[in-house]
């Protein structure tokens, strides 16, 4: 992409070819289970429209979202769209009317979805959510064999799916995760003993595709992958060879030679030890730069590493241009905040480390001011 044409202060450059490549690698690793693309929260902040269209073409068998608005936006693609958690009262009627697949988190929720489906004379596909350890939503595993048969008696529900969610799939098949997988399989066995079977059974998220092979083979039929599509993973080895799909860029606004002893930024958390050329770039915490990068992170300008000086402010960040000696870059120069290659590359994971968080939070923190520019076909 020609950065010169970008008329934005901060932008994410999202490579759809890489997104498709990641999707195909995850799909191959998950086979025979089939990939559902989790595109909630605007595809984790990266722009649900272009990403969903590309993954649709690449063979996603369905899409998962968190809420109704997100689900309705994906319906025109014509593939199954599933809300992963529960629906609120004001979402239910429209969800049923539009044929959104709904999660059943408890008997009461099932009754409400059933009643609405009867009212509309519709059959609603539902997947029953079983809580084997996440502790967030779902029918507790110990109650599942009693409650699920009650749900199946309700009219106008097509409960063909059942699923669970790991709290820590990145830890692989350790004792805890093995216990959760076994518990889920036990629930399926107990229900099977009552003559109840499901066509769609899923437990794996992205990290489970890397680390939990047991949930990729029958009876499991699907995996739900979100962050892996964007190239993030947890663990030492990038066993699937996923690649980051985006870089985050901004521009240099100005630079000045500053004298030794001068403070930089709010609260003067940096005081220059020597005369330094300091550049100001047009991105700050309103754009999602974590305050934790203050005095610790670096940016790349013409592939040179430029340490962040002082505290990140709302709209600006100050960096040392020492690496350029007497030949500083011109105002307007492109600054890479996340991206680059080799030793000096800045990754989502490195930001997450400095922020004391995980990559999901970094991705979902890019502000509304950050332009999303998709490159690659179907953009
Ligand atoms: C129920 C459920 N399944 C799957 C996912 C996708 O997880 P990941 O992004 O780790 O692949 C999420 C994301 O939070 C989720 O809540």
Structural commentary:
This protein is α/β, with parallel strands linked by helices. It has two domains: 16-230, TIM Barrel (Alpha-Beta Barrel), CATH 3.20.20; 246-346, Beta Barrel (Lyase, Ornithine Decarboxylase, Chain A, domain 1). It contains eleven helices and 19 strands. It has helices at 16-30, 40-44, 48-58, 68-74, 89-97, 107-120, 141-152, 175-193, 206-211, 348-355, 359-364; strands spanning 10-15, 34-38, 62-65, 81-83, 101-104, 124-131, 139-140, 157-163, 200-204, 222-225, 246-258, 263-264, 270-271, 276-281, 298-301, 304-309, 317-320, 334-338, 371-375. Strands 2-3-4-5-6-8-9-10 form an eight-stranded parallel beta barrel, surrounded by five helices. The chain has a six-stranded antiparallel β-barrel with strand order 11-14-17-16-15-18. A two-stranded antiparallel ribbon has the order 12-13. Helix 9 links the parallel strand 9 and strand 10. Helix 5 crosses helix 6 and helix 7 (141-152) runs parallel beside helix 8. It is elongated and about 80 Å long. It starts with 9 loop residues before the first strand and ends with a strand. The model has no long low-confidence stretch (mean pLDDT 96). The structure holds pyridoxal-5'-phosphate. The site of pyridoxal-5'-phosphate (PLP) has 11 residues, from helix 9 and strand 10.
